[in-house]
Structure formats: C-alpha cells, structure tokens
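It would be a great kindness if you could assist me with a short task in structural biology. I am sending you one protein, given as its amino acid sequence and as whole-number tokens for its backbone shapes. I would ask you to consider whether the tokens describe a fold that such a sequence might reasonably adopt. The full record is reproduced below for your convenience.
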Amino acid sequence: MRAVTAQAITEAVAKLCKEACYYVTPDMYAAFKKAEETEVSPLGKHILGRIIENADIAKREDMPICQDTGMTVVFVEIGQEVKIEGGYIEDAINAGVAKGYTEGYLRKSVVGEPLFNRANTKDNTPAVIHTRIVPGDKLKLKVCPKGFGSENKSVLKMLVPADGLEGVKKVFLEAVKLAGPNACPPMVIGVGIGGTMEKAAILAKKAAVRSVDSYNEHPDYAQLEKDLLEMACSTGVGPQGLGGINTAVKVNIEWYPTHIAGLPVAVNINCHAARHADVTL
C-alpha cells in the first residue's frame, strides 16, 4: 500500500489549474501551426496567426489563454494500492481548484446552484470529478478547465442500432453546424459512442481532451475520426467562424459496449484552447 497525502493532491491540482489555463499544449500549438500553413482563407490564416500570437503571449507572461477559464473537470485514476491520507480526496481536489484559481488570477465562473439563486462561489469550486479505480500504486490527475462557449454546443442523442454509422455522422455534423462560431474554432471535438446515456457523455468529454496526435486503437474508429474531421472542415465554418477549411484540428472518439437496443452518441466540443494538464503522483 502506497500513501498519497491530501495536501499533495491539493498542491498538484492548484498547479495543474494554472498550467492548463496559461499554456497551450505542445500538440495543440503544432496543430495551430499546421492549420495556419494549410488555411486557404486569407482571413482564416490571419486569425490562426493571432491565435498563435496569443498563445505565445500567454506562455511568456503567465496569463490565461482566454478570459473564460472554465469550470474545472478533473479525471482521477486511483491505483487500488493507493491510500489517501490526511483528508477526503474530493475535498483535496476542490481545495486545489480554489487555490489555483485564486493564486493564478483565473476567472471564477461557477455558481453554487444552477437555477434559482445562481450565486458565484467565488473560487470556481466545486469541480466536476470523475474517478476510476485502476490497478497499481499510482494516482493520476487530469485537470481540464472547460469553457462554456463550447460546452453549451455539446450534444447527446440516443440513437437506435438501425441508425447506424450514418446516424452517428448526422448527429456529429448537426453538432458542428450548430456550434458554428460560438465554440471558437478551430475546435477539438470529442465523440463518445456506446454505453448508456451518461457513459457516452463522459466518453465524449475524455475524447475532447485527448492529445490531437493520438488515434483510437481500433482501426475502424481511427478511420472514423479522420472521416468526421473531414466532414467538420467541409462545412466551411473556418477559424472563428469566419470561413476557411480549418473548422476543427482533430476529432477523437472513445467507445464502450452498449445494449442490443441502443446506440448512444455524445459530441463534446472543445474550443481551440482545448485546455488540459496532468500529473502522476
């Protein structure tokens, strides 16, 4: 049994919140550069240049890439041989979010109750936490601040098996067109297929923060990732919705077994910042 302290988790989460909001990941930065080189629209090319410039300034000055520093989503993988000491893990994570957003001068965007009062919690807590028990003695944290310009354009559809591949493509294309300029393209788009209603949504969220250099291990889904990216870019939405061929830089798919009567599909859209940072304790 290996011990990890609640304080270590808090400090790690605080650091990851700042890193995710300040720095574009290397794979995304390379994707911006490639998009700028390939973009046929002069205005789109200019916009991509400004996106790259913004990323450079944010990194140099240690300031947020975007004013919307999101609601913090945290994926946690806890090895079954790990023991958390000194506090409850979710309390430790939320303490880290509060510390990171306060010390990092990140915008606090969370309201404590969603419908009637909607009072700001003033420290961006609570986070949305997804926890999975895995083999081993390590604890992995992935912090993904999610802005709502893109989150609001996400889609969940409960298809039936008869809808098949064409049904999945239809849901995807409608989501991309609905998002249009509001999700700050070029986007990273996560697609979750299978499981149940809530499983498909979580799969899509995980896919949306997967590296743009990665592909699904299943060859059919890897090919579908490429096909869907081509479909997204063929819409002509382009960078910031002002036209061009780079509406998205990557589509990632995660899938799970499902019921014989079901074909759940979720599309989670990420803006061009596609913020995430992770650490293993």
Summary: The two ends are 14 Å apart (CA to CA).
